[in-house]
Each structure stands twice: as structure tokens, then as C-alpha cells.
Write a sequence for this structure.
């Protein structure tokens, strides 16, 4: 953002005009997402922040007070403003019988399932402090029950980093707590977060705008959540791996069908279906935004075709039995008809960008040319949950191109260009 002596400038006239044009182009009159995001609310944190033991703020609820206004300011895209207001809602929510979520205590959600003798926690946020606070909130509203199992849905730090606030090494070693994860979990943690760790951490500062002040002329939202917490990260190796494409296990009396979904949003990832509760957790493969096929902080390019395949498999295998679909980010969708429509559109978005990118590449177009040419079809262009709040159609097109054809665009002059500074 351009800077001046007085701070960030206001939006230019052309930006203001384009923002106003969106108000008539998108269905802002629809309120279903706000109803869904508020549904099942039980209570939230009484303080304005979550702090570390030394008093340092690792998560702030107060920083988003600027989102109180319904109307977007002239510096913010109104579609993003709407998304940021939805993502701001925080606290403990009941999804369905025995399934709860703590939302917006971090970039991701913590799902808590009530078993026969204790709790099954699904994912542990980024920081031990936020994870501990999320579990404390649940217990203050639902009672003090022990954690019997922790399920780690995939290998990204916003889903395992806070596990030290949920379980202890001693309890895991003593067999009092089971840690369940997809096959190749530890290998992909090392490959994604350790080997390129310093470079990715630096680049994450830019991808997520972590150094910008929060506000209408600074950091607004991550698209899939508010921001990243800044607490202590922990990792305890899993005690049980899900290796088969479909596995069914009973965990503390709760039947769970695990569906492997590798090479989608993460190299190691899995969906969870709860037959008795008629509830399907699609983790991070179907949320309320188009996701990244390649995150600009750096990672291996993801497989958009596999992404669409596993969403379609989940819809075919479980869809008719599902009354609520939810994820480890954002809010659920209720009602079987709506669930099936939601899954179909999520699947279609990833399949479309994959297939159409390859079609145009095979006609001789380069990645940047395809990105300029391709738009979502009419059936998807006004659908809120596939809009580019976190991922982006243009960037995703380039990512699909890279996966199949690499960085070289066929122009020999680009084989050995000068470094940026030169």
C-alpha cells in the first residue's frame, strides 16, 4: 500500500468506483451465511485478548472492532469486508449433537466431539495458548471432561501447533490420549515446515500481512480466518496413522469414517465422517473461499484435479447421509439439499480451473495469458463460497500451469534472465 508522511493513503477514485460496482454485481442481499455463522452460539471469551504466561498478547479480539460498521469503507473491497465480518464471529458453537467448534480463537477452528468418557479434539490451532484457551472456553460452558483423543487432520501448523495446550507428552506416552493423523504426517511436516522453514517463515510475513496494523487501511482479514496467533508452537508425534483410503474406527464410543485426501490442500490430509451425527468434516478442502493451489509463502503446488476428485468422492460416498458439513476454518452448512449443492460447487470450481487451464495451455497460451483470459462460469461467478478471498483464480491458474509445465514459458529469452537487482 502506498505510504505517505501521514500514513496509508485513501483509495484512488478508480478503486472506489470498482468497489462500488461490486455492490450491484454480487448478491449482498443474501443473509444465509450470517445466519449460519451465528447458529449454535453458546458463549465466548470474556476478555479482549488471549495472553502468554509473560503477559504478551498472542491473540486479540479487540483488534477487529473496526469491522463494526455494516458498510465497507472506501479503502476496502465490499466483498472482502463482508467476509471479514463473517470471520470475526468468535466463541463456542454447537454444530450438531455432541459436536462443537471453537471458532476464531486463531486462524483455524478447534472441533470438539463429546465421546463416551471424554473428548475427541480435532485440530489444535497454531499456539498452545490459544488452544488452551479454546479448550478452557468449552469446559466453562460444557463441563470439565478429559481429552481422550486428538485428531490432526493434516500437516499444516495452524492445525497442530497448539497441541501442547490440549494434551501432554506424559498422557500420550502413558496411553491415556491417542493422537491420530493421516499417513505420512510427520514426513510432510518436515518437508513443508522444517527444510524450507526460514524462507517460508519470512515469506509468510508478507502473505499474511502480519506486520501491517489492523484496520481499514491496513490488514483486513486472511479470507479463511482473521490472522495468525503469535504464541508457542508444539508438536507431539502421532500414535496412530490412517493409511488406507477409507478406514472406520470407534474413538471413545464415536464412530468415525476417515477418508484419505492426499495431495489436496496438504500432501497428507483426511476428511472425517460421523455417521451417527450425520456430519461431514471436510477439514480445509471445502470452506467459504476459493483456496490456494499454490500459497505464495511457498509450498509444493497442489493438485487441483485430486482436490476435485476427493470432494466428489466425499459427496458420492457420504453426501446423502449428511445433514451438516463443516470444516476446520469458518462456519458450517446445514440441510442435505444445501450440503449437496455446496459440495458440488466447491468441486466444480477446482475442476473447472484445472481443466480449463490445461485446455488453454494445450492451445498454446502461456500461464499469464490464461490467467487474464479465464473467468469462472456463470454458475459459479456469484457464489460467495468459491470467491477468491484466500486463494485466487488468477494465481491458481498459474499454479496449475506450473504443476504440469513448470516455470518456463517457452520464451528462450526467459531461460537466463538477469536477477531482480540488476
Amino acid at each position: 500500500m502506498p505510504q505517505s508522511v501521514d500514513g496509508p493513503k485513501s483509495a484512488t477514485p478508480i478503486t472506489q468506483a470498482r468497489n462500488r460496482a461490486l455492490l450491484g454485481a454480487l448478491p449482498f442481499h443474501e443473509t444465509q451465511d450470517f445466519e449460519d455463522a451465528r447458529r449454535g452460539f453458546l458463549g465466548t471469551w470474556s476478555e479482549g485478548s488471549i495472553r502468554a504466561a509473560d503477559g504478551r498478547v498472542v491473540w486479540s479480539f479487540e483488534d477487529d472492532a473496526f469491522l463494526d460498521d455494516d458498510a465497507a469503507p472506501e479503502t476496502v473491497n465490499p466483498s472482502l469486508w463482508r467476509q471479514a465480518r463473517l470471520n470475526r464471529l468468535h466463541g463456542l458453537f454447537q454444530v450438531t449433537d455432541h459436536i462443537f467448534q471453537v471458532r476464531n480463537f486463531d486462524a483455524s477452528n478447534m472441533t470438539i466431539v463429546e465421546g463416551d468418557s471424554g473428548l475427541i479434539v480435532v485440530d489444535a490451532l497454531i499456539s498452545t495458548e490459544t488452544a488452551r484457551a479454546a479448550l478452557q472456553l468449552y469446559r466453562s460452558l460444557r463441563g470439565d471432561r478429559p481429552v481422550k483423543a486428538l485428531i490432526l487432520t493434516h500437516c499444516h501448523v495452524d492445525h497442530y501447533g497448539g497441541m501442547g495446550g490440549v494434551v501432554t507428552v506424559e498422557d500420550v506416552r502413558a496411553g491415556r490420549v491417542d493422537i491420530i493423523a493421516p499417513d505420512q504426517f510427520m514426513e510432510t511436516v518436515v518437508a513443508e515446515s522444517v527444510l524450507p522453514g526460514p524462507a517460508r517463515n519470512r515469506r509468510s510475513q508478507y502473505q499474511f500481512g502480519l506486520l501491517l496494523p489492523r484496520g481499514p487501511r491496513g490488514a483486513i482479514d486472511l479470507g479463511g480466518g482473521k490472522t495468525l496467533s503469535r504464541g508457542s508452537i508444539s508438536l507431539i508425534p502421532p500414535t496412530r496413522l490412517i493409511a488406507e483410503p477409507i478406514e472406520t474406527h470407534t474413538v471413545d464410543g464415536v464412530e468415525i469414517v476417515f477418508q484419505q485426501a492426499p495431495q489436496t490442500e496438504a500432501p497428507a490430509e483426511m476428511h472425517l465422517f460421523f455417521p451417527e451425527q450425520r456430519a461431514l468434516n471436510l477439514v480445509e478442502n471445502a470452506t467459504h473461499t476459493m483456496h490456494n493451489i499454490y500459497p505464495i509463502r511457498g509450498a509444493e503446488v497442489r493438485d487441483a484435479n485430486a482436490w476435485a476428485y476427493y470432494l466428489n468422492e466425499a459427496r458420492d460416498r457420504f453426501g446423502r447421509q449428511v445433514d451438516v458439513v463443516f470444516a476446520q476454518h469458518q462456519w458450517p452448512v446445514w440441510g442435505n439439499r444445501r450440503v449437496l449443492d455446496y459440495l458440488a460447487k466447491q468441486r466444480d470450481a477446482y475442476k473447472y480451473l484445472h481443466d480449463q487451464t490445461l485446455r488453454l495451455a494445450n492451445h498454446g497460451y502461456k500461464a499469464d495469458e490464461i490467467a487474464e483470459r479465464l473467468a469462472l462460469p456463470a454458475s459459479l461467478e456469484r457464489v460467495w463460497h468459491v470467491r477468491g478471498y484466500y486463494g485466487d483464480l488468477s494465481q491458481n491458474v498459474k499454479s496449475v500451469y506450473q504443476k504440469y509445465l513448470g516455470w518456463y514459458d517457452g520464451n528462450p529469452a526467459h531461460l537466463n534472465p538477469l536477477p531482480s537487482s540488476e
Summary: The mean pLDDT is 95. The chain is about 35% helix and 15% strand. The longest helix spans residues 336-362. The longest strand covers residues 254-260.
